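Aim 2 progress update. The chain analyzed this quarter is reproduced below.
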Amino acid sequence: MNFQELSQKYPVIEEFQVKKIKLSPLGIDILGQGSFYQDPTIAPVDGMIRTADLISGHRFLNLDLLKKFKAKIGKEKDLKDIDLIDRYPDG
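Predicted structure tokens:
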């Protein structure tokens, strides 16, 4: 199911010029195309895809890159996320 299909079922929220669908209470955000933070100095998009973690048949940004992006953004929530990732046994 892609973003367009999900947007027919769930509300789309726009925050900070980012379109996303929040799947609560799961705490999962699904970002629309062009609605995610990119910084080619950290990793180009093809690098993010190439190094993605495969979990249950789905690709996710690997935690090392996620931490770098969150550190660069530097919002309080992002810094808390980094701390949680670092404290996770396999983080």
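The mean pLDDT is 84. The chain has four helices and five strands. These observations will guide the mutagenesis experiments scheduled for the next reporting period.
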